[in-house]
């Protein structure tokens, strides 16, 4: 545990704070209301801070588990690969950028509110894929490893489906914009990662089709 905190302090801090804040908000409606994203207010230059704080809370245990599982698998390795402040910049910037389309879309809808770290988690996933496209992961109860690229694609498909059938306050729309933000910011910070991805992608392609 101490080693993880030493090697990846930013990812660890975000992980811990997100879980603690979410659990606190489960039992505190006032705190939830204070942190949740309200596009109507943000569009009128009020409660602007919620484009960040909304990423610290989640709709329910399943929502929290889904995001934190994805974050756990990718975030710590990404911080090691790209650096501490770079990881922090990617996470916060993607959290903000992924919320902006939602703010614009619902700018005149006073009733609309949303929450979740979906955009930033998507950025972490796709930033990590750029560095290590050949990585694999096991997801129970699937009995075989899933390549990180395949997981990323399935993740976006699920998020697209969820956004079409959403009946909650979860900001499903942020996933796609978060993924794009993660790719762009990672490439800007480390342009050489493009070559790493291309080589790894070719290797994955050969393994699947040969």
Word description of this protein:
This protein has 210 residues and is mainly α. The chain has one domain: Rhomboid-like fold, CATH 1.20.1540.10. It contains eleven helices and two strands; from the N terminus they run ααααααααββααα. It has a two-stranded antiparallel ribbon with strand order 1-2. It is globular. The model has no long low-confidence stretch (mean pLDDT 88).
Topology:
Elements: H1 2-7, H2 9-26, H3 29-35, H4 39-42, H5 50-53, H6 61-82, H7 84-105, H8 118-131, E1 136-137, E2 146-147, H9 148-164, H10 174-189, H11 193-209
Helix pairs in contact: 2-6, 6-7, 6-8, 7-8, 7-10, 8-9, 8-10
Spatial shape: globular
The count of β-strands is 2
The secondary-structure class comes to mainly alpha
Oligomer: single chain
**Range of strand content:** under 5%
Gyration radius over CA: 17 Å
- H and E order: HHHHHHHHEEHHH
Strand arrangement within the widest β-sheet reads: 1-2
CATH 2nd-level architecture: Up-down Bundle
